[in-house]
Amino acid sequence: MAGKKQFDMDTALDAAMIQFWHAGYADTSVGDLSRVTGLNRSSLYASFGDKDTLFLCCLERYAARYGAAYDAALSCAATDPVAAVRAFFDVTLERIADPALPDGCLVAQSAMAIPVLSQSVAAHAKEALGFQRRRLRAALEAGPLGDRDAEAFAEHTAAVNQSLAVMSRAGASPAQLLAVVGVTLDALSQALRGR
Q1: Relative to the CA of 16, which of 6, 36, 106, 132 has its CA 20 to 30 Å away?
Q2: How many domains does the chain have?
């Protein structure tokens, strides 16, 4: 249509996601979102709804994007759980090392902000955090670990994965992050040898 500015929805969502990821929900204003998406406030509201709705779209986008990568990494868990968990961590470490992306993890950052989030947004942040643990548990249960050990390692691995994101945001070096990953992989290897 003549006179109407067209925009790419995916580009705008990615820009908003990066803004929330970089600054956090509470420190991202509608003005910030307008600036990074290139949409004025009325266009932003008309296209995405309020700030909570846009944040939820961004959180779902983030979870889907990296969830697919985590699923691919864990695909060999039934036959080689250690390689699968290593590949799982590699997804996080590669994302952390990407200079085009903010440090940390949008899901971990959102979970830490739960006290200041609306009930609906907080529930989605908790759900996104829990989904990673459930993904790990399902993958590890398909392998030689028993259900109880699979649950324990899933809980531990998810916690370590979120810690990597927090540590990276605080300036930890790649060597420090790899050392943390190594402890988890060693523990998993020992548990598998003991079976």
Answers
A1: 132
A2: 1
